[in-house]
Amino acid sequence: MSNTKKVLAAMSGGVDSSVAALLLRQDYDVIGVTMRLFTNEDIQLDRQKTCCSLDDVEDARQAAHKLGLAHYVLSFGERFRECVIDRFNRAYSNGLTPNPCIDCNRFIKFDALLRQAQSLGQDYIATGHYVRRRYDEASGRYQLLKGVDAGKDQSYVLYGMTQEQLAHTLFPVGELTKAQTRALAEENGLLNAHKPDSQDICFVPDGDYARFIEAYTGQTFPQGDFIDQDGHPLGRHNGIIRYTIGQRKGLGLSFGTPMYVIAKDAAANTVTLGPNEALFRDTVIAHEVNWLSIACPDAPIRVEAKVRYNQQAQPATLYPLSDDRVQVVFDAPQRAITPGQALVCYRDDLLLCGGVLAGASIPPDGAEPSDGYHP
Known about the structure:
Layout: E1 6-10, H1 15-24, E2 29-36, H2 54-66, E3 70-75, H3 77-93, H4 100-119, E4 124-126, E5 131-136, E6 141-146, H5 163-167, E7 169-170, H6 178-187, H7 209-217, E8 224-227, E9 233-237, E10 260-265, E11 270-274, E12 280-291, E13 301-306, E14 314-322, E15 325-335, E16 342-347, E17 350-359
Parallel strand pairs: 1-2, 1-4, 2-3, 4-7, 8-11
Antiparallel strand pairs: 5-6, 8-9, 10-11, 12-15, 12-17, 13-14, 13-16, 14-15, 16-17
């Protein structure tokens, strides 16, 4: 009886997941799977512009065939609708700016897919994410680290993983650069070696969130007031879902100086405008915090933190408020911190924790940050 471990490799049709499957073949018994999350017709998508199109399923099938792997398509449409699309719509409707890729990873790839894999007797799942994992003997925890290719690191969207999920997930391309990945694909005759990366949210490929939300939900979002920082009306906006923190263009108003969206209030249906300097602040609160690579510390710690996917992590002090709530004070004010996005904290390449941005607060009195942390 073979002792070779079995892996269910998620193959999206892109080059990264295809090379992940290629690398796994050396040491594992691999099956390729592609997740069908929706039908394009259901939400009026152009099949050429989204990572979940019929063309992508065919690309994944061709890659699996080239690698000599069995390939299956698994449908997670209902769960994707409930856990990703519906949450996305609710967040925008409540004045937040969500990151649905985080929810997709949290609820679909590393929850529903892993459970499906385990029911099929697989030891692991694998994806083409540019991240690394390791087991820390001292703490007895699996840890998540940034990918070697800093420009492609995807750890930010994986902060919600659990210890159970990390223990049963492999990230074969995490040690590679994107150029190395494409070179391996070309050397091995994969047809998607030079396929462009997907840039948009898969179910909103044209980036028009407001159009999608109104079409999908059947809701309309009424006009309301633009106001200044003192609450004085400045004009009328066209529905709160059409604006995000830091936005300058598309306001439909003219001022003597540049004005930006600095806050939204869904209950009052107002959008607050102000000068660029009003977008900067140094203190944020995050809730629903997941401590991944270390346990929640019992004292303030120094971290590097990001408040958006493409941001360079910035030095800060983290104050634990509870097991799932933190306050972070940046050394320098950060621009356009946006409720609903994720705060993710690191120590060098190690992802410590992440949570959902809720807003600013007053730094706690008498708390001094420690130089280290306690796994």
